[in-house]
Predict the structure.
Amino acid sequence: MSTAYILVLYYSRHGATAEMARQIARGIEQGGMEARLRTVPAVSTECEAVAPDIPTEGAPYASLDDLKDCAGLALGSPTRFGNMAAPLKYFLDGTSSLWLTGGLVGKPAAVFTSTASLHGGQETTLLSMLLPLLHHGMLVTGLPYSEPALLETRGGGTPYGASHFAGADGKRSLDEHEITLCRALGKRLAEVAGKLER
Ligand SMILES: Cc1cc2nc3c(=O)[nH]c(=O)nc-3n(C[C@H](O)[C@H](O)[C@H](O)COP(=O)(O)O)c2cc1C
């Protein structure tokens, strides 16, 4: 039997959301669980366009089995017009078979996002990602205000999930508070999943 793992499933075009995913994975490991990092391919208006099976760099592409067998899920996307990015939505739109079988019911989930502007839709994006997860019957684990960084942050960080302000040029790195909150989210998710697994 394989070890229980938390799936960290994300899309990232320029790397900011991917860096958040790695910090959340560290938090998951601090919480005593394995983290499995997976991404999704870009989508194209060219219907016939196909991506190679293996990305040229970074995390492998997620399969439905990665999702079906996880003990919990951290879902991340860049903000696109206040919403999750189409490639991640496209992947989620392909999860009807899991919905039909109730494969994700009762599993814990958390969300994260990166934006170019500080007030450019982090919270709406996080909520947009929670909607399909609630339809799947997942249990939402946000970030509690017992995390001091949530009140001290000058960048990202919300009770709905972790967030990062990457700046207009996308070059602003994760700051100390954003890293703390990414790790706290991962740790909390792992701890909840561990309790539910028992
Ligand atoms: C089509 C598109 C729409 C975007 N919409 C927003 C937005 O609504 N608010 C915002 O702050 N940033 C917006 N951005 C910027 C990205 O959210 C930001 O650059 C993010 O950090 C990219 O993450 P990544 O490095 O993981 O790709 C948009 C970018 C694109 C390409």
Observations:
- The pocket of flavin mononucleotide is lined by residues 12-18, 78-82, 114-117, 120-121, 166, 170 (CB under 6 Å).
- Strands lie at 5-10, 34-39, 72-78, 108-115, 139-140, 162-165.
